[in-house]
Amino acid sequence: MTGLLPYGRQSVTDDDVAAVVAALRSDWLTTGPQVTAFEADLAGWTGGAGVAAVSNGTAALHVAYAAAGVGPGDEVIVPPMTFVATASSAVALGAQVVFADVEPETFTLDPAAVSAATTGRTRVVAAVDYAGHPADYDALRAAGGDTLLLADAAHSIGARYRGRPVGSLADLTTFSFFPTKNLTTAEGGAVAALDGELLTRARRFRNIGLVRERDEQRWPDEGGWHQEVHEFGLNYRLPDVLCALGRSQLRRLDDFLARRARLVARYDAALADLPGVLTPGRRAWAEPAWHLYPIRVLDGRRREVYDRMRAAGIGVQVNYIPAHWHPAFADLGYRRGSCPVAEAFYAEQLSLPLFPDLSDADQDRVVDALAAALRGAPARPAAA
Ligand SMILES: *Cc1c(COP(=O)(O)O)cnc(C)c1O
Q1: Is the CB of 152 under 6 A from ligand 1?
Q2: Average of pLDDT values for 326-345?
Q3: Nearest in space to 137 (alpha carbons), one of 10, 286, 37
Q4: Confidence band of 3 (pLDDT split at 50, 70, 90)
Q5: CA neighbor of 295 nearest in space, from 312, 311, 313, 309
Q6: Is residue 154 lining ligand 1, measured as CB closer than 6 Å?
Q7: Fold for domain 253-375?
Q8: Topology of domain 14-250, CATH
């Protein structure tokens, strides 16, 4: 590979291309049989929880919060160590986001912080399976009481918690199929719901809020064409063409995850004795679906190491700036220092390249470039 080695990228085969072409040539471009089939295939990964495909992972969060009834006056508890959409999609519904800190080993939502943050107005507790490592769902369930639990599983489709699959752990689970994630539909996402009523609400919000079931309509005798809106929604549908890609990708998800796990084991071994960095932690009860390989660069050297590795052609990334540091949250009064575990982690965090088609040789190049950056040696440019 020439140029910058990316931190993540899709793996697309001729089979994927053929699946998309076949869908393009069919009678359906948008809502059609591939959508239903993709949702059924996804339910094979969620332990049977019903699934609604949507247009991206941010839409999935918006749909899930809407299905949960989130609105003005409600509070939604979110960890700051996530992509901003976990929090901003709740703000879009008029809710107040309450940031609760993360655990020091996995950087997933800390159940003790959730207990402290829960009030009578808490509508949803939203956990994030950071890097593909599941949050501690049983403890979060206990900490949140009767509050709905949401899993932002944008990183973690295919992971297991105490033997149970992601998708079956929270009342609502959201996925993203962006190209860097564990499988892709270009843009795409999904919502899984344990409860049939939540799933129906999610499906309706995804489709403008339209109610088509005659026995649920207020004006059922209007005529055969009739559909009506009871609660406002948006158009967040995922087209048939992209669902065909998703189905084809899903057939290789086991292989993708196995390759990611092998690369993670190689990184763990190569970096174990490298001074100045810490490798990612993992709890005994977790079977992660590694999306990121987040190391910690010690001694205040993260920025220097990032710059040196970028100069050496290694596309390292930082995931993530604490969500409450975004100016839009700062302008609402959220303050730095409120989530010290997440903020200290951010200061050290660096994601090394991790994706199924990353070769062992390119991974070795990443390890060499990291060691060189830590030695402070001049950066060696990438082979052209
Ligand atoms: C990628 C991601 C999202 C948003 O998904 P998009 O498909 O990019 O909209 C939400 N949450 C997390 C944790 C993510 O990594």
Answers
A1: yes
A2: 98
A3: 286
A4: confident
A5: 309
A6: yes
A7: Aspartate Aminotransferase, domain 1 (3.90.1150)
A8: Aspartate Aminotransferase; domain 2 (3.40.640)
